[in-house]
């Protein structure tokens, strides 16, 4: 599908396939190389932190991060699950756009419950700015190599609302 999109010079346009999960390095990482001295922050200095940008959609997508850790994103009406098979203890900062998900009754997706390893997280540990908006949370996984450590399930109830167009000021801008 061809089209034209506004592309101001002071903004980076990012086109992402529905269902994608993008692992991002912490902003303070200067180099992926182990060289550079004590004033340079290397990847190995931040291996215990990861930011994930998720764009969940209906269906299942699978990918790998850090060359050996599977990521599985599975969406269906009223629910989204993100499974990470982590090889180490890590702090994950997750931002998930719910624009492409539908609520249990067909309206916009509004998170009512977020679970980590089968346990509900307190509402103060996560937030969603509006139905169909970005869900944000930070969680720490335990160290159990080759075991599925992080499973986030959002069960929702629809309110008859319809998704609004994507706006950069509401999605992932810090």
Which CATH architecture? Sandwich
Order of helices and strands: EEEEEEEEEEE
| Average of the residue pLDDT scores | 77
Helix-residue proportion: under 10%
What is the rounded distance between the termini?
31 Å
Shape: globular
Radius of gyration: 17 Å
Assess the beta-strand content as a share of residues. Answer: 35-45%
Which CATH top level class fits? Mainly Beta
Main beta sheet: 6 strands, antiparallel
In DSSP terms, counting alpha (H) and pi (I) runs of 4 or more, how many helices?
0
Q: Which residues form runs of ≥5 with pLDDT under 50? A: 146-150, 154-174
Number of structural domains:
1
Task: Write a structural description.
The protein has 174 residues and is an all-beta fold. It has one domain (21-170): Immunoglobulin-like (Sandwich), CATH 2.60.40. It is 0% helix and 36% strand. It has strands at residues 21-24, 49-54, 59-65, 69-76, 79-84, 91-97, 111-116, 119-120, 126-128, 134-140, 150-156. Mean pLDDT is 77; it is low at 146-150 and 154-174.
Q: What is the element layout, followed by pairings?
A:
Layout: E1 21-24, E2 49-54, E3 59-65, E4 69-76, E5 79-84, E6 91-97, E7 111-116, E8 119-120, E9 126-128, E10 134-140, E11 150-156
Parallel strand pairs: 2-6
Antiparallel strand pairs: 1-2, 3-4, 4-5, 5-11, 6-10, 7-8, 7-11, 9-10
Which keywords apply here?
mainly beta, 174 residues, disordered C terminus, 36% strand, Immunoglobulin-like, 11 strands, six-stranded antiparallel sheet
Put the structure in a nutshell.
The chain is built from no helices and eleven strands. It has 174 residues and is an all-beta fold. A six-stranded antiparallel beta sheet has the order 3-4-5-11-7-8, with no helix packed on it. Strands 1-2-6-10-9 form a five-stranded mixed beta sheet, with no helix packed on it.
């Amino acid at each position: 599908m061809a089209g034209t999109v506004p592309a101001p010079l002071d903004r980076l346009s990012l086109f992402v396939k529905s269902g994608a999960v993008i692992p991002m390095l912490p902003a303070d990482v200067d180099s992926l190389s182990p060289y550079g001295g004590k004033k340079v922050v290397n990847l190995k200095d931040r291996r215990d932190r990861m930011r994930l940008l998720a764009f969940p959609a209906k269906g299942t997508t699978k990918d790998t991060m850090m060359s050996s850790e599977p990521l599985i994103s599975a969406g269906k009406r009223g629910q989204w699950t993100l499974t990470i098979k982590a090889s180490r203890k890590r702090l994950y900062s997750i931002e998930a756009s719910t624009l492409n998900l539908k609520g249990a009754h067909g309206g916009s997706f509004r998170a009512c419950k977020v679970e980590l390893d089968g346990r509900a997280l307190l509402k103060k540990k996560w937030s969603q700015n509006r139905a169909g908006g970005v869900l944000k949370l930070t969680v720490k996984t335990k160290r159990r190599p080759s075991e599925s450590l992080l499973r986030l399930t959002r069960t929702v109830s629809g309110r008859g609302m319809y998704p609004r167009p994507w706006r950069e000021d509401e999605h992932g801008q810090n």
